[in-house]
Write a structure and sequence with these properties.
The protein is α/β, with parallel strands linked by helices. It is 45% helix and 12% strand. Helix 3 links the parallel strand 1 and strand 2. This is Short-chain dehydrogenase TIC 32, chloroplastic.
Amino acid sequence: MGYFREATGIKGPSGFGSGATAEQVTQGIDASRLTVIITGASSGIGAETARVLALRGAHVIIGARNLEAANNVKQNIRQGIPSARIDIIQIDVSSLRSVRAFANKFLAMNLPLNVLINNAGIMYCPFQLSEDGVEMQFATNHLGHFLLTNLLLEKMKTTAARTGIEGRIVNLSSVAHIGPYSEGIKFDKLNDKKVYNDKSAYGQSKLANILHSNELARRLKAEGANVTANSVHPGLVRTNLGKHSPVFMAVLKTVTCVLWKSIPQGAATSCYVAVHPSLKGVSGKYFADSNEEKPSDMARDAVLAKKLWDFSEQLFVLLSVEMKLRRRHYPSSPAPLPLPHVRDPLARLLSSCLFFAGTKLEAMGYFREATGIPGPSGFGSKSTAEQVTEGIDASDRTVIITGLFTYAPVLCSSGIGAETARTMAVRGAHVIIGARNLEAANGVKQNILQSTPSAKVEVSELELSSQKSVRAFADRFLSRNLPLNILINNAGVMYCPFQLSEDGIEMQLATNHIGHFLLTNLLLEKMKSTAQKTGTEGRIVNLSSAAHMTTYRGGIRFDKLNDKSTYNDKMAYGQSKLANILHANELAKRLKEEGANVTANSVHPGLIQTNLGRHSPVFVTILRAATSILWKNIPQGAATSCYVALHPSLKGVSGKYFADCNVEKTTANGRNEELAKKLWVLSEKLVKST
């Protein structure tokens, strides 16, 4: 751990040692092009880090809980450095609400962001829970910084890409990471007061800082982002961080007096890792005394790092949902509802579902869905259909969209299909609406024409549950000899009671999959010939759902499709949504083998406030209450379909599953090639038998 150097002050390979100060390790460095955020900078190491980086010319944003103390730091810095650029934004990293507010305020300033120093922390405090119901040291030292980093990461990546200056993330860890609980991170007993130990809990949180940096570094490298992530041990520094354990600290200082540093020395490693040019491209490392050191075996455990990342995302989703419920059902009680002992029955129901799903949370992209954090595409759950298609000229495209409205009792333009049609028309596309209710569809058409008089919109009758209707729709379209660039298979029914279609097929599978399978096959030659003639890639988009992960055992019940005795409306819906993904995947494979200039992908639009779940009102009411943090409005719900249908960045992308306008990982069933092929064969039989 570098204790010999720490005790002697002997310099390491970097040319610095434990006796070096923050000013010394940054001497001669011009940071005037850098914007730096430092949390916990109202005293101690954070304040000195802010001072030295301001001295080197950086624009410093101080994130502090105590605004009065932070302003004193700011004034002290300006007394010594009149030209210092310093701003203050309040943040309590133990509060996820406060972290979000901080990020929103910073992003609203439209500043670049080059360096993020996650410096804030608490140490050896007695057992208590944060306002979000998480053990306080873990909440403050890790979880708050995990969220903050995610909220600011896209800004850092875009800044680095635009300026060519490497972004750097520095997590303040500690040598105390070698003394966590025996298992490292107590995933199953995070909030267990009975086994709580303030020293081990602190070590756990400091271990988490290193694991967070390492996993983040791995992800950034895989993505090719010009941003690094490292962790640092500042040394044993004379601050008031150990105020919760004065006797222990007094003994520790006596025994280890030779190792203790001054505050300028304690800030050195953070400053060195944040701005020193010799560390360009260095990522996923642990530093002490301004030199790379080897952390504990646990800190180098890549599997543990991945597990912590997944756990942090899952925990954040649960906390977000629980907080929403607490405000709704317990507005007079500020006390947290500690997970997993959730008192609210709806929250308990959701918690059970989410814990059962396990790492599927990450696969379904729920962390981004709950936070609105943009993904690699630059878009996220809060992006709207207009935003993701901004600047795109679709005037040379003809688009068919099925299922325009949401079966509401009044004429409306509030469905995903309607918003998709409107946005496509705004971008200049010739839109063909395929809808069961012509009166409602024409109402949507008129609404579009009112706002976009130049819109090219047509309506044609289509009942997806009827193969006769599907064939008639295709015949009418093909007889007009129009081109066809994009097919969006959007129509669907959800959670309906058992019934058979007019073709004798269970209604949800008939409507959501078989009808679209037939329609796609009938129009596919037109799409291929259009793409060949125009040189414009054709795109097929199947509207699936995250519900595809809650299907029958085995995925598709090939032998019991129409078995009423074992029918479950939720499982049947999940089966049909899984079929949408498998259909897109198998179609993509066949198109690629054929060399056709047409792609096929599936999308999860998100949880949308529509009337689609009218057949199961009680269940949907509970679902909405328990997952309110995840629900989108209609323009947000239509975004992913529009993105996949039009965005130029997806040229050649096929056989993928998208959520929040980013590629996501589906379930094992959703990636099962044999299952996809078997479904294709069955579907061909079902459409040929009518």
